[in-house]
Amino acid sequence: MQPDDDKTQAVTVLSKGTVIGHYRIVEKIGAGGMGEVYLAEDTELNRKVALKFLSPHLCQDADCRTRFKREAQAAARLDHPNIVTVHEVGEFQGRPFFAMQHIEGRSLREYASHQELSIPQVLKIGIQIAEGLQAAHEKGVTHRDIKPANVLIDSHGRARILDFGLASVAGIDHLTKTGSTLGTVGYMSPEQARGEQVDHRTDIFSLGVVLYELITERQPFKGDNDIATLRNITDQEPEPLERYKTGVPEGLQGIVTKALAKDKNLRYQHVDDLLVDLKEVCRQPTLQILTKQPSIAVLPFANLSSDLEQEYFCDGMAEEIINALSQLENLRVIARTSAFSFKGKNEDVREIGRKLGVETLLEGSVRKAGNHLRVTAQLIAARDGSHLWSDRYDKEMKDVFAIQDEISLAIVDRLRIKLLGDEKDDLVRSRARNVEAYSLYLQGRFYWNKRTATELKKAIEYFEQAIDKDPDFALAYTGLADCHSLLHQAGVLSPAEAFPKARAMALKAIEKDRLLAEAYASLAVITFSYDWDWPKAESEFRRSIELNPGYATAHQWYAVYLKSMKRTAQAMEEIRKAQTLDPLSLIIRAALVKILCKECEFALAEEQCHEILNMDPNCRYVHPLRGNIYERRGMHDEAIREYLEGETAFGLFGSHDSEALKEAYRESGWDAYWRKHVDLLKQYAGRRYISATSIAEDYARLDELDQAFEWLDRAYQQRDPELVLLRIEPIFSSLISDQRFVALLKKMGLDA
User: Fold this and answer.
1) Which of 290, 319, 353 is the last residue of a domain?
2) I need a surface site. Which of 163, 656, 671, 732 has the fewest CB within 10 A?
3) CA end-to-end span of the chain, whole Å?
4) Quick one: average pLDDT of 624-631?
5) How far apart are CA 142 and CA 207, in angstroms?
């Protein structure tokens, strides 16, 4: 027992301040697999290092000690900018460790999960991994576990390979023998999956998997379980890249296909050849243009006035600059939702730039004294926090919109964007001329984003007040249109009551400003959801995006339209554009989850739900989304829990009703729950608007088809907007072969 006790004691002393030779522990920064990693100071060379220790419970395992030593030996052979460098090996209180280069950054898995990587970004990362592997293979080292978790993206965006724990090294006895399987399921080569002897070509296959995943955001061989995944690796070919990603450049599909060849003799034989092909794709003119596209996030301007009521004024100034810049097709401008999420947070500009995926940031401040304004603005490089441009404006209050125009034009000039004459005119065309009206509009949008009945009513009040201040303020009319388009979801009004009002407001906005993208997007939603005029709806969506390519919400709504038309690839392209423009928007991410669920991409959908909760642990939208995922997977306990939490969060059912639903499920199971659920919905339908399509869904779950069709017919009579997704809703799959289903679609102007 004494040796084990000693090991346990050794763990306790690895805390801040522990001295190990010329290293002093700062903090623990990671753990997993075989080791624990600590940040430490090298007191001799005055630098930070990472110390990786073998996990205490493995220290008595001879094979684990050998494997841990092998990792250090393999990495120590290599000195390359795309590989984390090992400095030395040692042992402390019976625990082997090695000291390696400390890199500020995060794993490729985490890096890719926070943003949609462009094709140029994927190619850059792929080339850097390949260059690292090239150096390793030249030294006789095969990594054997290439995956996103084993690639670090440093603070400068460079990819670094780490974790050589499974590496084989020429001239050193192999750790594994034929017949054993080591690696990570999903990234193994076919020869690894079969337990055969592997060589450097297994790394090429794994890199092919990584490239496929970064491009499509899904693993090429993912199965329902590890056994199914291994079978897919050996027997199945992955779907083409273009099924999940539009704009794949010429030659890239061939590169990935060759890297993923089942027969290693048909694969790239050397990573050098793969490098040549990847670099050739990078030389395509379209890729070079895409790589150079500038990007910016306009942060909320700081209020330096003593009057806290000026907050909305400061926000309005930043928003108007966002609106002006987003008119430009060759500039990616982050939407207000994401840019303003950093308000009040003292976060480093480099971290903000990383989270938003932009090159530049605009920040500023406003000081108001009486009718006098002092506005400062500065353009910052997100990469290193350096200043690119700054200026100060001392003006009268009546000149505030001229200041916004000056700032916008200065940014464009600094970023060296080529402007055509008309484009420049559009840039300085401010959409608001009354500061108070604009502040009221911003407050209205704040409440509109909450989407509950109470908050939608508050939003309407603010938009109406804005119109009272400025009857020609077109944006306020779009706010009213968008509120009325959501009132049926909140149970406030029926579609027949709400949508005609919404249409009138959207048309009024267009009358006030025929170049307002938001107005055409609002009209498109009404035409799609209520009028069921499919061609006209698409025309309005496209008009909105043409007027303002940077309006993220238009891309989001258009994606839902495209999905309902069963044009999945285009829908994914549009929702990804929306997410790129507004990366921290919970609403847009929720829309992505819905689209993924319709495509049975449950693992990816659940990952997105996890990201939503990371951004907002109290987000209400997650519960019904996860409920749908669990239901589709047959995980009924989990589905019921999420559905109940969602309905409680949105105030659909009271506590008494929720308890009755729980009791029904607890005592009699799944069908009893939905029978009780549909009874409650029908009771509530007498007091508020309840979607007839929702009731039809409950009957479809119960396999009561006659009742389902009865309520679908009511939904048709109500012009229920939920009916537009009828063709792609899996809950109705049991109805598809019924002629009543075909007839209903025909009445709606849709094909089966």
Assistant:
1) 290
2) 656
3) 72
4) 90
5) 12
